[in-house]
Amino acid sequence: TKLEAPLLGLLPWIRSKHGKFELQRAFSEDKEHAFTEAVRTLRTGVLMSALDSPHRTILVTSSLPEEGKTSVATNLALALAQLKRTCLVDADMRRPQLAKILGVDPNAPGLSQLVAGTEPQEKCIHVYRDSNLSFIPSGPVPANPLELLSSRRFGEVLKNIEESFDVVIFDSPPVQLVSDAVVLAERSRA
Fold first, then answer.
1. What are the strands of the beta sheet with 133-136, ordered from one edge?
2. pLDDT tens-digit profile of 68-106?
């Protein structure tokens, strides 16, 4: 009400008896049924919010760390991947988590190498297990993440990714800590 924005979905707070990374991919494992159903509702809310002009990019952020943005981004991406060609991008270049969550080596080729041009797109895009979800881990953390995300080359990479997928979801850093999410929001609207 305060923000005068529509509510797309409401996710329950889960004190999981499972590990942290299991909750972050709970949609694919359906270990927390109430959470999985809430993610489906969120997916429907996102899809229904833009019937005439479908969202091509979705930025997931939070105000502070540990508020669940990566869990939301990952589970929403898994849900959307059931319906659309979806790519989840770890754009949190300061505290990347997706490689661990989705089971690839933290040093696997990713966004930083893709933007730097040191690895081709096909080496930086990974597929999560037996799903239709593609993802791009952060790759090695660059010295200045904001400079990388603000670069002309990042814009070119973003355009190529958008052309390859129906939906691109960005997991970004919290907005109150750094300005990366603001830059990503502007870049993904272009």
1. 57-60, 167-171, 86-90, 133-136, 126-127
2. 899 999 999 999 999 999 999 999 998 999 999 999 998
- pLDDT tens per residue, range 120-163: 999 999 999 878 999 999 999 888 999 999 999 999 999 999 99
- Both structure tokens of 117: 């041009």
Sign of CA pseudo-dihedral 188, 104, 119, 123 = negative
Q: 113: which residues sit within 8 A by CB, 6+ positions away?
A: 119, 123, 124, 139, 140
Residues 6+ apart with CB under 8 A from 17: none
Q: Measured between alpha carbons, how far is residue 98 from residues 48, 92, 186 in Å?
A: 27, 9, 22
E strands, 34-116, are: 57-60, 86-90
The predicted-structure confidence for 54-73, as pLDDT tens digits, reads as follows: 878 999 999 988 888 999 99
CA distance to 12, 70, 86, 100, 118, per residue, from 57 (Å):
24, 16, 10, 23, 25
pTM exceeding the 0.85 threshold for the entire prediction: yes
Contact indicator for 61, 92 with CB cutoff of 8 Å: no
